[in-house]
Amino acid sequence: MARHILSKSTFIRGIQCHKSLFLNRYHKELRDTLSPEQEALFSRGTDVGIFAQQLFPGGVDASPENYYDFSPSLKKTKQLMSRGTDVIYEAAFHHDGLLAAIDIFVKDNTRWKIYEVKSATSISDTHILDASYQYYVATQSGIAISDISLVHINTEYVRHGPIDIASLFTIVSVLKEAREKQNFVRETIFLLKTVLKNKSLPAIDIGEHCDSPYPCDFKGYCWQHIPENSIFDISGLYSKKKFELYNKGIVALQDIPDDYDLSPSQHIQVKCALNNEKHIKNDEMKRFLQDITYPLYFLDFETFQPAIPLFENTRPYQRIVFQYSLHYKETEYATLLHFEFLGDGKTDPRRPLIEKLLPDTKTPGAILVYNKAFECTIMKELAESFPEYSGEITERLSRIKDLMIPFQKKYYYTPEMKGSYSIKYVLPALIPNPPERYEDLEICNGDIAMNAYESLNTESNPQKRERTRHALLRYCRLDTLAMIWILEIMEKCGMK
């Protein structure tokens, strides 16, 4: 078989951007490095797809060993169909340079049904388009298709005992929509083939399409002309407005017209960046710090959201808290104490977490967090799931104070914060050389922590498990240490 020209993913890529399609075909070396978060997203999609095969058990897998060569998969699919196999996983078809690998292919008398599995919780227009492409290739290959459906996660499902596969997934027929889009698919395929045949890079500028429907993996190449401190760094400015400015030739912050409609917060960000100056509201800072009195706790949670519920009475993508770091200072100059919890990755971590957190925070004292809305939501969800602890949890909630407020409201802002009030930006802005830095850690953000913890569920190698646990503990500990260092800087600046 000659190398295919288009697949489902490149068909969607081409609809999003002809330039991205061309680069993906001829200049893969320019592609951005896949982030750990993106790798985890793809892995999740694969895992959900394999899990969904249980909807139609007993099938035969036709997927290739090498995804750069589908010839064996095409041959195996043809053989399985001729033998009368009822269910085929990853059935492959090729027609006129087009490749389709179908998640679940089910025999329906003399015809076949297509099931495309999505790890999403609802159906999008993009899902309809890629299903329409699959339908086109299958039917053009001479296969009689009786139905095509999208299979997605049902967020209303609650696990009770073993997973109920039929309830975990929702199956929606999109046959009508797929048929209606066949002319569009045919015309688009012709256009995309022409783009690739021309062998010249399409002259397409950056735009909102760079992130819709998916973030493009050639942004590093296409966006290299955008300078530091550009309009794209302005926090809270809608993408549409940013590109309206860009299309008028306004890119650098100094090019923004004086009368351009920015919010007060955005004005502060732009002014500080242009003048390389800090913005400090001393009175507001003093008022905030006067409400922060010792003894003090510094608390941070980590959560994960498994697509397939791992524990009793949980839903798909439900946020599950699995870890906390807690520092305690009785006075400003007292010895710093540290407490922590990390689940085992195998069992529901919530009850043992509560049963350790409540004694650890029993002594009176304000509980400082960074982003009160997040931590309070976690605590309220715990109280709801474990009502026997709701009284004590409610008491802890009454003591929570938010260290993020001065930075969120820009009582204190520096250009290094880049418009963000995330602790990952605030810490290096206030302390350029902190004792520990996030970028030096193996796990350096919440998304990576989430994926690392989820991996413990299936990791059997003791050394790898211990390494992951150690990295998780270091990361969460740095979050609470960062709060302590930030507060110390405020106090040393004489703001209290």
Question: What does this molecule look like?
Answer:
- With 496 residues, the chain is of the alpha/beta class.
- It has 2 domains: 8-197, Lambda Exonuclease, Chain A (Alpha-Beta Complex); 283-492, Nucleotidyltransferase, domain 5, CATH 3.30.420.
- Helices cover 42% and strands 16% of the residues.
- It has 19 helices and 13 strands.
- It has helices spanning 8-16, 18-26, 36-52, 71-82, 125-140, 165-168, 175-180, 182-197, 219-222, 239-246, 264-275, 282-290, 350-360, 372-385, 390-397, 405-408, 423-430, 446-455, 462-492; strands at residues 60-61, 87-95, 98-108, 111-117, 145-153, 169-173, 279-280, 296-304, 320-329, 337-342, 366-369, 400-402, 412-413.
- The strands form 3 sheets. It has a 6-stranded mixed sheet.
- Helix 14 (372-385) packs antiparallel against helix 15 (390-397).
- The chain is globular and about 80 Å long.
- The model has no long low-confidence stretch (mean pLDDT 95).
Short structural summary:
With 496 residues, the chain is α/β, with parallel strands linked by helices.
* CATH homologous superfamily title of the largest domain: Ribonuclease H-like superfamily/Ribonuclease H
> Whole-Å distance between the termini?
73 Å
Structural class: alpha/beta
| Number of E strands | 13
CATH level-two architecture of the largest domain:
2-Layer Sandwich
Name of the level-1 CATH class of the largest domain:
Alpha Beta
Number of helices: 19
Q: Radius of gyration over alpha carbons?
A: 27 Å
Tally of domains: 2
Q: Tell me, briefly, the overall form.
A: globular
Q: Tell me the major beta sheet.
A: 6 strands, mixed
Poorly predicted spans: none
Kindly estimate the percentage of residues that lie in beta strands according to DSSP.
15-25%
What does the average pLDDT come to? 95
Named CATH topology of the largest domain: Nucleotidyltransferase, domain 5
Tell me the helix content: 40-55%
